[in-house]
Amino acid sequence: MGQRQWYLEYRIHKNRPGLLGDIASMLGMLEVNILTINGVEGDTRGLLLESDEDEKIEQIGKMLAKVDSITVTALRSPRLVDLLAVRHGRYIERDSDDLKTFRFSRDELGLLVDFLGEVLKKDGHQMIGLKGMPRVGKTESIIAGSVCAMKRWTFVSSTLLRQTIRTQLSEEENNSQHVFIIDGIISTMRSNEKHNQLIKQIMEMPSTKVIEHPDVFIEHTDYSYDDFDIIIELRNNPEEQIVKDTFATQYPED
């Protein structure tokens, strides 16, 4: 069996001296490599491990279950959120009732860009919705995430520099490796028939579409919430309310 990565997370009840050293020594005796270790929000620790035998990981779980000063909260193949938690030292907030919704605040832009960079690396069709009030950093985050994913991006509709409403793609842009950025307000409330046809064409391409203001987009098109693979909410602060009724009045008319 080849090398395989695992994510170990535990909560500390009593942070006695030498606790981490004891755990690291146990892993070393079983020849399990520690690739990354970081504190994850308070008294929680996350470790990215590598082992050539699944049985060793099972044994680690049984041994750690007998340690009174900690409680193992995760021992699994690493998910994207696990990798980012170890890398940044904090977990991405998720909706407890809707696990495809991820929440970020503006002081977590680095974490958001890293998250988007990993998501945008995926090939094929995917729809990502990005909610947030104006000027919170939505478009800039998408661009930075595209750079991290080493993919080019195309504005289909936008107000970043000036109001953009595209009606066709260039030969170079007509490529499934592009990330297509769509402003859900501009594309539904300021568009024309040619633009609508372009949106339909892009939606049928095996590529990534990132739609800002997905609530407005859903309200004025035939697409539904179920069509989205991921919904991201970006706020200036965790308490901010994202109120879509205020968006249209802040968008310029032609």
UniProtKB/TrEMBL annotation:
Stretches assigned to the ACT domain: 8-79
PROSITE patterns named in the record: ACT
UniProt name for this protein: DUF3388 domain-containing protein
Taxonomic path: Bacteria, Bacillati, Bacillota, Bacilli, Bacillales
